[in-house]
Amino acid sequence: MSSSLAIKILRYSTSTSPASSTTWRGLVRKLLQVPAQEIHTCLHFSFTSPGECRPGCHSHLPRCFSSSEKDARALSAARKVRAETITAKRAQLDSLLRSNSESSDGDKHSEETEKDQIDKRELAEKALKIRAEERNRLLGEAGFIVRSLYRTCLRSVRVIRPGNARDEADFAKREEKQKREMEEVDISDDSFSIAPPVDRDNELRSRAEYYTEQMREGFSQEIDRLDSDPWREDEVDQFSYLVRSGEDQRKYILKDYRFKDPYARCFYHDQLDAFQIQAKELVADEYEARGWVLQSERENNMESEDDQCEVFGDDNDYTVK
Predict the structure, then answer these.
(1) Using CA atoms, how far apart are residues 167 and 204, in angstroms rounded to an integer?
(2) What is the distance between the alpha carbons of residues 246 and 240, in angstroms, rounded to a whole number?
(3) 66: which residues sit within 8 A by CB, 6+ positions away?
(4) Contacts by 203-209, CB closer than 8 A, 24 or more apart
């Protein structure tokens, strides 16, 4: 802007006198040294005719340029303040945008965390429901096995109730012995005693009632092993052991009284084995869900620690060779 203005001034100066031309040259030098914004502030520097300016302006040229420098510095300072203000506001805007972004990310993360917690809770509730259903199913299996054995034992008691040839021979032997004792008794002796006569029906009935009562007590113990919640490994093992022991005792009683066993193949061995395996799996799931340690794992860890125990430490004098 200053160069174009200087060119115009030089064109005007060509038609003036040498004295005024010298003045114009000095003016041009000063204009070329003044920044463009300062020239804009001196708007009263307009020309009415070639080589002539408005009255009073040329005589106060130094003061005009001094005022222009002050205005330029004020304008520069204002622009600097404005730039700093814009920069500060831009920084505030960026900070606000970042905070909003972080807030949205935090809200999103919080929502995802809450969703994960809900999913985990739902999975835990679903797993708990599945374990409860499996427990009820296994209780049904155990009840079926126990009821089957109970019916078999009742039928076995009915088998021995009327007695057999061995019982009859035993009764006859005892009656003969009592008869001999009666013949050898000295009536004059007040200290003798006579055993009661043999009562076949009473003895056979008492024997059947005795085993029936024993059987009921045994079955109440077996089913009580599965009352706790959750089950333990030893409870499952004890239940299986008592059921198998009941079957073994039933067979032994029939064999001891010389009766044939018509129910030898009625016991559910495979079902009991499957129940024991599945019940232990359920116990393992229950312990894992609760953060417990299985009894078998604890015992194995204790055994491994005992095996690794060094009694004499690192003392070479007591090293066992």
Answers:
(1) 9
(2) 10
(3) none
(4) 203/171, 204/161, 204/162, 204/163, 204/167, 205/161, 207/160, 207/161, 208/157, 208/158, 208/160, 208/161
pLDDT the model gives residue 306: 55
According to DSSP, residue 60 is labeled G
Per-residue pLDDT tens digits for 210-229:
999 988 888 877 778 898 88
Judge contact between 138 and 282, C-beta under 8 A: yes
Give burial (CB, 10 Å; 0-12/13-18/19+) of 2. Answer: middle
What pTM did the predictor assign? 0.58
Residues 297 and 291: their CA atoms lie apart, in Å, by: 13
Could you please report the per-residue DSSP string of 111-122?
Answer: HHHHHHHHHHHH
Q: Which two tokens mark 231?
A: 């089950």
Cα 78 to chain centroid distance, Å, stands at 63
Q: What would the two tokens of residue 51 be?
A: 């080589």
Per residue in 30-87, pLDDT (tens digit) is 555 545 444 444 444 444 444 444 444 444 444 444 556 777 888 888 888 888 888 8
Q: Tell me if residue 53 falls in helix, strand or coil.
A: strand
The first and second tokens of residue 7, run together, are: 């060119």
CA distances, 129 to each of 3, 122, 134, 286, 291 (Å): 92, 10, 9, 12, 18
**264: which DSSP letter?**
T
